[in-house]
Design goal:
By secondary structure, this protein is α/β, with parallel strands linked by helices. The chain has helices spanning 41-47, 98-101, 133-136, 139-153, 169-180, 192-200, 215-222, 239-245, 267-273, 285-298, 313-322; strands spanning 2-6, 15-19, 30-38, 64-70, 82-85, 116-119, 124-126, 161-165, 184-189, 205-208, 227-232, 246-254, 276-279, 304-309, 328-332. It is 29% helix and 24% strand. Strands 3, 4, 5, 6, 7, 14 and 15 form a seven-stranded mixed β-sheet that branches. Strand 8, helix 5 (169-180) and strand 9 (184-189) form a beta-alpha-beta unit. Helix 4 (139-153) packs across helix 10 (285-298) and helix 7 runs parallel beside helix 8 (239-245). It starts with a strand and ends with a strand. The site of NADP nicotinamide-adenine-dinucleotide phosphate has 31 residues, from helix 1, helix 4 and helix 5.
């Protein structure tokens, strides 16, 4: 079978595409054939060494495929079941703890840049029936984070006003879930053609954050005093403007660090605005099950960018690095 592994010191040039024998299923475990994966900023951080890794790690948190063998004692799955991976396989339900969030697919344990894996039954959830493997491979990290941000943490409801930032994979899911919930969506991007595509996806108000450096104030003005929920992806580059965009007592869900890990915050404005600041890391398996049910019932379809064969994984990451993508970059694991 084909796979990608990371040599240390980590770098895109240290990603190796190779071959090794398929693993055999073992008691209590499930053998999965992965058909597709997708790229997240988190995967980029792993393969470029921004996050620590180990020599030989198989990267990529996201996978969609089918069960091809079931070990003795496994009752949850049968051969032929269509499945997706789980970002935190030890975080099944309830609150996040140190214990249940230390194990991360494609980070502290091997991920899905491989054609076959043998995994624990609880490291999988069913694939929404209407989705292709490529579409379903976008769900475990980006979609679940957006779902948790708006549905779990903000309790979004019809009529709420939501600000999503940029046209990356997570933000587009946030836009889609906000529209599903009947919310009014404010979206930013650095490029006019991407703003136009965000409009076709249902964004009501658009702001070019590269041309309008005070985009938070613009959103505050357009929304008549600030939005109810902000999904912040930039940290250093966005948090100050997010604080201007949110209404008094609204939510800022801190999801990303695209602009840097540290952000200066105006404490006076923070106290005046009284937002609920909620940093989150993806979500639990139970949240993923809820999200997949919501996706299946609504018929939501993820927005896909380009597809790359596993052998071109480095090119796929370079495409992500260029920022030219809109939505999710797919890795075809069958090719
Ligand atoms: N906490 C979590 O659990 C979690 C889970 C998923 C993602 N994230 C985080 O969310 C962020 C986005 O992840 P992703 O996988 O969706 O990334 P992605 O697909 O690579 O999206 C990047 C997009 O964000 C916009 N962007 C880039 N730099 C920016 C900046 N400095 N300020 C504002 N917007 C900027 C750009 O949109 P335009 O081209 O339209 O300008 C860019 O295309 C990352 O920081 C990632 O770590 C966190």
């Amino acid at each position: 079978m084909k796979l990608a592994t990371l040599k240390l010191p980590a770098a895109l040039s240290a990603l190796q595409i190779g071959e090794r024998p398929e693993p055999d299923v073992t008691p209590g475990r499930v053998k999965v054939r992965w058909h597709a994966s997708s790229l997240n900023y988190h995967d980029y951080a792993v393969v470029t060494g921004a996050l620590p890794s180990v020599d030989g790690r198989i990267p990529l948190s996201d996978g969609a495929g089918e069960v091809v063998a079931v070990g003795a004692g496994v009752r949850e799955w049968k051969v032929g079941d269509r499945v997706i991976s789980v970002f935190f396989p030890k975080w099944q339900d309830g609150a996040a703890t140190l214990d249940n969030t230390l194990t991360m697919t494609g980070d502290s344990i091997d991920g899905c840049a491989v054609q076959y894996s043998v995994v624990e039954p609880q490291a999988l959830t069913p694939m929404p029936a209407h989705l292709s493997p490529a579409e379903a491979a976008t769900l475990p990290c980006a979609a679940l984070t957006a779902w948790r941000a708006l549905v779990v943490e903000c309790g979004i409801k019809p009529g709420d006003r939501v600000l999503v930032q940029g046209s990356g994979g997570m933000s587009i899911f946030a836009l889609q879930f906000a529209r599903l919930a009947g919310a009014e969506v404010y979206a930013t991007s650095s490029l006019p053609d991407k703003l136009e595509r965000l409009r076709t996806l249902g964004a009501h108000h658009l702001v070019n954050y590269r041309e309008d450096k005070l985009w938070g104030e613009t959103v505050r003005r357009l929304s008549g005093g600030g939005v109810d929920h902000v999904v912040d992806v930039g940290g250093h580059s966005t948090l100050a403007q997010s604080l201007k965009a949110v209404r008094v007592g609204g939510n800022i869900v801190m999801v990303g660090v695209l602009g840097g890990l540290e952000a200066p915050l105006h404490i006076g404005r923070l106290i005046a605005r009284q937002p609920r600041l909620r940093p989150i890391a993806v979500g639990s398996r139970a949240m993923q099950l809820d999200m997949c049910r919501g996706i299946e019932l609504s018929g939501l379809r993820p927005v896909l960018d380009r597809t790359f064969a596993l052998s071109r994984l480095v090119d796929a990451f370079l495409h992500q690095e260029s920022g030219r993508h809109f939505g999710k970059i797919i890795i075809d694991l069958a090719a």
